Amino acid sequence: MISIIAGSKSDEKIVKKASSVLDENNVKYSIDYCSFHREPENLKNIIKNSDAKVFICIAGLSAALPGAVAAISDKPVIGVPVSAKLGGIDALLSIAQMPKGVPVACVGIDNGENAAHLAVRILKLI
Description:
Strands 2-1-3-4-5 form a five-stranded parallel beta sheet, with helices on both faces. The chain is an alpha/beta fold. It is built from five helices and five strands, in the order E-H-E-H-E-H-E-H-E-H.
């Protein structure tokens, strides 16, 4: 089971890229839309109540969502930066520059497909 969490409904096109790969691979997943900045308690509840083995977090701008999930959960987290501003470079750097002890894998900007492919590979190891 994979949990896809997007910071905003405006990220839906990236969510669909990821979910389509998961559908092709017959992998179960859930989708939630939750901003860490606006709804921190809701995000904590989503994570704590999830049966997911891997989280895919889709976020733009400051892209705090993947790091927040990695700080709350000890499961693998894959961050997908979104090209909301600055061509997505701001989100990419936010996701790639996690502090030690808070690991987040980072795929290319808007690349929900690669996030899903990586999540499927991680599931094969578990």
